[in-house]
Amino acid sequence: MADCAGTSHWWHPSVHGDRRPILLARNEMKRAIRVWFENQGFVEVDTACLQVSPGNETHIHAFQTDVIRPDERATAAYLHTSPEFACKKLLAAGESSLFTFAPVFRNRERGRLHAPEFTMLEWYRAHESIDRLLVDCETIVRVAAQAANVSEFRHGPAICSARSAVLRVTVADAFAQFAEIDLDAHLSGGGARGEFGDLAMRAGIRVADDDTWSDIFSRVLTERIEPHLGLNCPVLLTHYPASEAALACLDPDDHRFAQRAELYICGVEVANGFVELTDANEQRMRFERAMAERERIYGDRYPIDEEFLAALEIMPPAIGCALGFDRLVMLATGAPGVAQVMWTPHGPFGSDL
């Protein structure tokens, strides 16, 4: 047996002993958030991890397996990449306010901010607006910080006050401030891919010939915008372009943008929320476009959950938000990565650094 001195294995007593205060803080944060939701009248739900579809976003990769019946017939199944489909089915069933701490699974993801298995806190409110989402995010951030007994969040050199109000910033304003790109004017002019690529290259962004408009948008967001968000106070980035709507409704006052918002703390994206799309036909078209693009890039596609689309037809208007709980714990405890805040991180601890 190899000498364990200096090991990075999470299960070694010396490593676990150093991590244990962080893990106990994680428990306190989960407990406090759970109590807050319950006091708000939410119902906690448990969603099945094994689904007929893992989700239908172009660049999110799933783990696939087979369900073997007693007669040895096999049916493809997937570990969900989010509990979203199941939660929305419960909204259709009649639940009006629900939350879940769900284990979720994403392949091809590993690093300081990513793990193949992690915990997603998702919550949904029927008949609420995106303004309520802002209040929820602000409150949950404060509840988590109080439970961890910290007044600020930290990630590397970045520091963010845990007591400050969440600042709301539009994507267009962020692009103008940090990338010197007039997104409003670009979208008003038709939003051509070639023009957008030129704007991005002027901002110092590398653009490949086969990049789509969304690819370029994501690169500008990642390289020029995100590092500046949430450095003093949490930031809710709002009004994403309609092409980035995914499962969100478009803004009824300006169809160039979606009713989608993301929460940033210390330059790290922590949560992604929507006014949820309930038009099943529109959602099907978005899924099919995303899967066609996925097949073009990766050579595969995921099935569409027909029951989910059927549930959308009777689901009430709602808001929903998915928060990376491990990232929130990481920021509250100052841990260098999400692996350090997981009770049993996937694989050797050191490989996640």
Features:
disordered N terminus, 9-stranded mixed β-sheet, 3-stranded antiparallel β-sheet, disordered C terminus, 353 residues, 37% helix, single chain, alpha+beta
Q: How would you concisely characterize the structure shown here?
A:
By secondary structure, the protein is α+β, with helices and mostly antiparallel strands. It has ten helices and 14 strands.
Could you characterize the architecture of this molecule?
This protein has 353 residues and is an alpha+beta fold. Helices cover 37% and strands 24% of the residues. The chain is built from 10 helices and 14 strands. It has helices spanning 13-39, 84-93, 130-148, 171-179, 183-188, 193-202, 213-225, 280-298, 306-312, 325-333; strands spanning 43-44, 50-51, 63-68, 74-79, 97-105, 117-126, 152-155, 158-161, 167-170, 235-241, 250-251, 254-265, 268-275, 318-324. Strand 12 and strand 13 (268-275) form a beta hairpin. Helix 2 (84-93) crosses helix 9 and helix 6 (193-202) runs parallel beside helix 7 (213-225). The longest helix has 27 residues, at 13-39. The protein starts with 12 loop residues before the first helix and ends in a 20-residue tail after the last helix. Mean pLDDT is 94; it is low at 1-6 and 348-353.
The arrangement of helices and strands along the chain is HEEEEHEEHEEEHHHHEEEEHHEH
What overall geometry do the principal axes of the alpha carbons give? Answer: globular
Strand content: 15-25%
Q: What is the gyration radius calculated from CA atoms?
A: 21 Å
Helix content: 25-40%
* Overall average residue pLDDT: 94
- Class by alpha and beta content: alpha+beta
Number of distinct helices: 10
| Unreliable sequence segments | 1-6, 348-353
The main sheet comes to:
9 strands, mixed
Number of strands: 14
Head-to-tail CA distance between termini? 24 Å
